[in-house]
Inverse folding.
């Protein structure tokens, strides 16, 4: 009976030690993983901030360009302007000869259309275009008139080799 009692005490001690260390190990692993994830999130946030440095959303000087209230003009909100300019540029994709603002003519009967658009500031747009076989990029100028009409002008176009 004494041996059974001692064996039960030893089993309880070992069980207590095992579970207390398991909790401690789990907590340490959780803390380590949490720290690693926070570092990863901070790194991704920093990279995203750096990659969006050249964008109308983060360029206060370019945003102020659309504030003509001091000279009696209208204020154009850049938050509303960005989707309007993007949509207007993408509307030209439906042209039978392709988007004229790619700076490319049809190749082998396939028209070029703009896929992605990024508005860099109050004057410049960079866009990616393709015809399904060839890919390229174009740098555009855009102008917003007083009547809020938008015009585009191809500054430079680059077509990558196949």
């Amino acid at each position: 009976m004494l041996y059974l009692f001692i064996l039960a005490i030893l089993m309880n001690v070992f069980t207590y030690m095992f579970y207390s260390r398991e909790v401690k190990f789990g907590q340490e692993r959780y803390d380590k993983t949490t720290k690693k994830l926070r570092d990863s999130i901070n790194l991704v946030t920093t990279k995203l901030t750096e990659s969006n440095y050249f964008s109308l959303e983060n360029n206060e000087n370019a945003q102020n360009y659309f504030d003509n209230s001091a000279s009696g003009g209208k204020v154009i909100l850049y938050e509303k302007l960005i989707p309007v300019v993007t949509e207007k540029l993408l509307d030209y994709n439906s042209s039978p000869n392709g988007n004229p603002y790619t700076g490319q003519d049809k190749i082998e009967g396939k028209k070029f259309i703009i896929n992605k658009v990024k508005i860099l500031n109050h004057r410049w747009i960079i866009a990616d275009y393709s015809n399904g076989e060839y890919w390229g990029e174009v740098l555009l100028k855009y102008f917003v008139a007083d009547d809020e009409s938008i015009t585009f002008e191809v500054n430079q176009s680059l077509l990558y080799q196949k």
Q: What stands out?
A: The two ends are 86 Å apart (CA to CA). The chain has a mean pLDDT of 90.
